[in-house]
Amino acid sequence: MKDFPDSIPVSVDKSHIVVLGEKLYAESIELIRELVNNAYDADASEVRVTVEPNRIVVEDNGSGMNYEGLVQYFNIGSPDKRSRERSPRFNRMLVGQFGIGKFASLAAARQFAVLTRCREFAARVVFDKKKWEEDKDSWHLPLELVDPARREGDGTTVTLTDLSRAFDESEVEQRLLTGTPLRARSFKVFLNGHLVTPRSLTGIRLPVLEGTPFGAIHGEVVIVPATAADPKDLGIEVRVKGVMVKRDLFGMETFGKEATRVRGELNADFLPVTSDRTGFILDSEEYRSFRAVMDKVIDEVGKVIKQSSTKKESRRSGRAVKEALQRIHRALAQNPEFSPFGPIPYGEEQPGLGGAAVTGGGARKGKENAAQEVPPSAEEEEKQAEEKPRKRRRANPLLKRLTPNAVVRRMRFGKIGVTCVIDHFGEAGPEVFSEENIVYINADHPLYRREASGARSFTMNMARLLAQEIALMQAPRNPRKAFDFQSRILREAFND
């Protein structure tokens, strides 16, 4: 029987290596991100990226590579990074993983040159796509030893030439912002001479620090103001070792338009990523644990958004009621026959409670008098404060609120104060009702919600409801007469 060798040789066509690199890095712009991350892993504190029409240069001041390091660098699927979890100088968690990024570079450039220096060793390796594929039997790349003085200090410079596509500077910057650990200490990246700075968002900040059996989840979620909401780049960025892997809504689709206000960055270094680094291995225990935490985080975000929206709506309601009260006050002052409160002085200062006052010329007079008075000394002020008992503001026993977020505005009409309360009484509840001099408006009523969509219609609707109740106070037994009063009050209120 013929003898057979105890092993079977395995060979890989060189063109397949290039194709594999292109598949893993579908967008050729990823090669720049990969080169910057290699510099990060090499303990660089500064990386300078230059993007030109037919050339890309990535230069770092990291530890550089000696001969063994260069061999390891061009070794496909090298286990070196997988066996080392941290860099030697800055103790960084290593970002690179597959070691095939240099082959992906050939998807966008026909030549890939590496100049590196590590102490007294300096060398240059040129990776020419055409020559490498032509020499089918050789897996060797030409190595040229150079004078260490040709490169100032340790580090590596990668130059890509003969590009097959042009790279837009803003596109490159966006990829660096999301794909590199720019927030890491002692790490700066410059693009065509300017520093690439991580984005800073303004808004309600929700810090996140949660533990799992596999590691910590930390970062923050930011709810930006409605004026800064943007439908582009929706969701929360999830980063592994400082690099964004995926942006996700995590169920916030149910928030509707409010989802455009949510941004954030969360780090979960324990999450297993897919081979193309565009997602996570969803059926892993690590990801299931991560999602359980995210469900709690999104629930909290929803509560904060709801509170924020309630406050915003309360401010809008307060402004609408204030203007409506001022307009009705003016109409009743000019037409005292409509007023159930008796004659209302017009043009003088009307002190209001809750920010709904109508002010007149009294403020200027008070200011002039104050300018002529000699201010009391600190001792006199302290003595006056001790002698003068504090007046405690009494709550109106008739006023009832169903919710803590009810909007309350008060205004004095002559000698009587009128209070307006906007609260939630349910869709089936009355649109408006009164108890003595308190007017209650139902924020759940369909007409209220419809008219609240515009500032002008909102104010007019508030005035309509207030005028209705005030007219009924004037003519409680004659609805037809009250309806006529309401119409004339509104006409005078908006006669501008």
Describe this structure in words.
- With 496 residues, this protein is of the alpha+beta class.
- The chain folds into three domains: 14-195, Histidine kinase-like ATPase, C-terminal domain (Heat Shock Protein 90, 2-Layer Sandwich), CATH 3.30.565; 204-281, no CATH class; 309-359 and 398-493, no CATH class.
- The chain has 13 helices and 18 strands.
- Helix 2 (30-41) crosses helix 7.
Keywords:
single chain, 496 residues, alpha+beta, Heat Shock Protein 90, 8-stranded mixed beta sheet, 5-stranded mixed beta sheet, 18 strands, 34% helix, 22% strand
How many angstroms separate the termini?
112 Å
Based on helices, strands and strand pairing, what is the structural class? alpha+beta
> Can you tell me the CATH architecture of the largest domain?
2-Layer Sandwich
Shape: elongated
Name the poorly predicted regions. Answer: 348-375
Rg over C-alpha atoms, rounded to the nearest angstrom: 36 Å
Give me the CATH superfamily of the largest domain: Histidine kinase-like ATPase, C-terminal domain
CATH class of the largest domain: Alpha Beta
Tell how many strands the DSSP assignment holds. 18
Number of helices: 13
Main beta-sheet annotation: 8 strands, mixed
What is the CATH fold-level name of the largest domain? Heat Shock Protein 90
Strand content: 15-25%
Largest sheet: spatial strand order:
5-4-3-6-2-1-7-8
Whole-number mean pLDDT = 81
Helix content: 25-40%
Instruction: Estimate nothing, just give the exact number of structural domains.
Output: 3
